[in-house]
Amino acid sequence: MDKDKSYKDILGFLLITLIAVSFFYPIFNSGYLVHLDNPTHHFEYTFLAKHILPVHNWINGWCMQDFLGYPILLYRPQFGLWLAIILNKLFFVSLLNSYKIMVLFSLVLICCSMYFLVTPRFGRKAAICAALILMLQKDVYFDKILAGMWENYLAIGVLLIFFALLNKYANYLSLKKAILLG
User: Fold this and answer.
1) How far apart are CA 85 and CA 69, in angstroms?
2) C-alpha torsion angle, residues 87, 132, 153, 169 (rounded to 10)
3) At 107, is the pLDDT very low, low, confident or very high (cuts 50, 70, 90)?
4) Nearest to residue 108, comparing CAs of 23, 8, 34, 41?
5) How many CB atoms lie within 10 A of CB 65?
6) Which of 17, 54, 130, 131 could form a disulfide with 115 if both were Cys (CB 3.0 to 4.6 A apart)?
7) Are 110 and 134 spatial neighbours (Cβ–Cβ below 8 Å)?
């Protein structure tokens, strides 16, 4: 019975991923993402990957792109850009395509984590509906994720996974496990 449940969960995750990919496939056309903050974020990411890391062997620096300069990666979550740099360095994906993959992954992660959070309490059908409603909100995908705030939604996806795991293991929580969870 557990195998049947896991297959159904995997099918739910695959359905959400396929819909997100079909929804965001135009971003993989040639060219840069130019909606709102994306050019600045992509420049910082490229500057970090091509100049600061290899030349200075350091993980932060000063970027003169906006506002007469400010520290790179200061005002937003850094996890997504580091994953994009890892994609670039380990799997030899171009900087632009790794950035675009992470933009897509932010939508997939927040919707899949919503599915993961909602499924135990309300069932798979309600979880799919909640994930799709989240995915299709213009405020989420266009005004935020495609506008360059995708790192924030990647962080929210990780937070939803944390809540789902906390909910799942709340009955078995000890002080040691709570400290490990953060």
Assistant:
1) 22
2) -90
3) very high
4) 23
5) 14
6) 131
7) yes
Q: Does pLDDT of 1 surpass 70?
A: no
- Beta carbons of 101 and 83 less than 8 angstroms apart: no
Which two structure tokens, joined as six digits, stand for 68?
Answer: 């007469």
**First CA to last CA across the chain, in angstroms?**
32
Contact (CB, 8 A) for 168 and 58:
no
Most distant pair of Cα atoms in the chain: their distance: 60
Tens digits of residue pLDDT in 40-87: 888 888 888 888 888 888 877 777 777 777 787 777 788 888 899 999
pLDDT tens column, 162-177: 999 888 887 777 888 7
- Rounded Cα distance between 61 and 48, Å, is 8
Residue located via tokens 């995997």: 10
Averaged pLDDT score across all residues of the chain: 87
Q: What is the pLDDT, as a whole number, of residue 8?
A: 85
Which residue has tokens 């695959």? Answer: 14
How far is residue 125 CA from its own chain's centroid?
23
- Amino acid, single-letter form, for residue 75: Y
Residue with tokens 């984590």: 113
